[in-house]
Amino acid sequence: MKRILRLRSFFMAALLFTSTLAFTSCDETDDVSPEIHDSKVRGPYDQKGVFILNEGNFGTPNGSVSFLSDSAGHQVKNNIFSAANEKRPLGDVVQSMTLHDTLAYIVANNSNKIEVVNAFTFKTVAVVEGLQQPRYFAALDGNKGYVTEWVSYGSNGRVSVIDLKTNAVLKTITVGVMPEQLLIVNGKLYVANSGGNTISIINTTTDAVERTIQTSDGPGELVQGKDQHIWVLSAGKVVYKDDWSGIDYTKTTPGSLSKLNTATAAIEATFTFPGNQSIPKNLTINGTGDKLYFNYENKTFEQLVTATGLSSTIIINRGFYGMEADPETGNIFGSDENGFSGDGTVFIYSPAGQKLNEFKTGIAPNGFVFN
Predict the structure, then answer these.
(1) Which of 14, 93, 125, 261 has its CA 20 to 30 A from that of 244?
(2) 313 in Cβ contact with 319 (< 8 Å)
(3) What span, in angstroms and rounded, lies between the C-alpha atoms of 263 and 252?
(4) What residue segments make up the domains of the chain, in order of their start?
(5) What are the C-alpha distances in Å from 101 to residues 104, 271, 297?
(6) Residue 21 pLDDT
(7) Rounded distance between C-alpha atoms, residue 139 and residue 310, angstroms
């Protein structure tokens, strides 16, 4: 359901609560073997663990994927795509990844493609090319998937319909400006148009927009709660001064958190952030669908889905470049891009906000996929 699917870890649940947990790191020449060796193992990543998406530097094809294994030693292996594909680079700006059945769909934004790989070996099985600034992917079933595309900055974007049997683009659907995350709920595809103030609702039978609803400025992040509602995090609209010397805060709008009722296709509630000089980001939700987490003013907040206003509960006294909550353990994974100047850092926190560990990955880690 969520744009970046999550790869989870059972063994990690018990061990990450100890401060003595050690992580080892290796490059693409090392082997990360499954904890259990038997004939049913389909590849080195047919095991419990966490995939980490490393965006890389814009304009350079050094985006990558790392893997944190739950097996003995809790090994972190970097550059797993290149290692599986004769050292071929993955692409320029690794934006997101989705697991579906036995495949992983890796969206490389500035390379304008989706690498389709075997989820257990990470060997490429197909490449969806000809896309225009793709962002996020979601699979409806084994036959059809969708990817959001900006197309060009400031103009209407689109959603491309992908035949998952042939990996060909079947159709394109025009949506709002700068479409970002997407969710499929009860046969409807919800697309957040971050360059404006709308969400496009697409009928997945007809592959046509059947409704467009208005939100606050800058909707970009979507998660689904336990009651089928969708939570929408909007960044607000940043307006620059006429001479481009800085931001005009007299015209810039604040971000907000909204609750969308999927049964009525209506926004039931909107909670507006108190200021317009900080942008809320990294909306995620726990596995039971009753606690939201987000970053604001360089802090991490926890909020119940039953709340009637914005939460003031800070559980981690810092924000992150990317952040996701593990749907089974509730642990929070956050990242620091370290100025894009070298390896990024991943931090793991307990649901109560206690720091459990940290380790290095590739350049600019921006997302996590749990199994």
Answers:
(1) 93
(2) no
(3) 32
(4) 10-370
(5) 8, 37, 38
(6) 44
(7) 32
Alpha carbons 201 and 183: distance in angstroms, whole number? 10
The answer to whether 157 and 147 are in contact (CB under 8 A) is no
The answer to whether 193 touches 175, Cβ cutoff 8 Å, is yes
Running DSSP on this structure, what letter comes out for residue 247? Answer: B
Whether the pLDDT of residue 39 is over 80: the answer is no
Q: Is 136 exposed, middle or buried (0-12, 13-18, 19+ CB in 10 A)?
A: buried
Check if the beta carbon of residue 68 is closer than 8 Å to that of residue 7. Answer: no
Q: For residue range 318-344, list pLDDT tens digits in order.
A: 999 999 999 989 999 999 999 999 999
Whether 367 and 53 have beta carbons less than 8 Å apart is answered as: yes
Question: What is the pLDDT averaged over residues 199-225?
Answer: 98
Provide the pLDDT for residue 72. Answer: 52
How far apart CA 158 and CA 79 sit, in angstroms, is 31
Contact 367, 360 (CB under 8 A): no
- pLDDT beyond 80 at 32: no
pLDDT at residue 73 greater than cutoff 70:
no
List the beta bridge partners of residue 147.
137, 160
User: Which fold is adopted by the domain 10-370?
Assistant: Methylamine Dehydrogenase; Chain H (2.130.10)
Closest CA to 281 of 319, 331, 325: 319
Cβ within 8 Å of residue 217, ≥6 positions away: 196, 197, 234, 235, 236, 237, 253
The SS3 call for residue 174 is: strand
Q: What confidence tens digit (pLDDT) does each residue in 93-143 have?
A: 999 999 999 999 999 999 999 999 999 999 999 999 999 999 999 999 999
